[in-house]
Amino acid sequence: MNWLIDFFGDPANWSGPGGIPSRLLEHIEFSVVALLLSMVIAIPLGLLIGHTRRGAVLVVIAANAARALPTLGLVVLIVLLAGVGTTWPVLIPLVALAIPPILVNTYEGIRGVEEDLRDAAYGMGLRGGQVLMRVLVPVALPLILLGLRVAAIQVVATATVAAYVGLGGLGRYIIDGLATKDFPSTIGGAVLVAVLALVVQLGFSLLQRVVVSPGVSRRVKVR
Question: Which of 111-125, 140-154, 192-206 has the lowest mean pLDDT?
Answer without folding.
Answer: 111-125
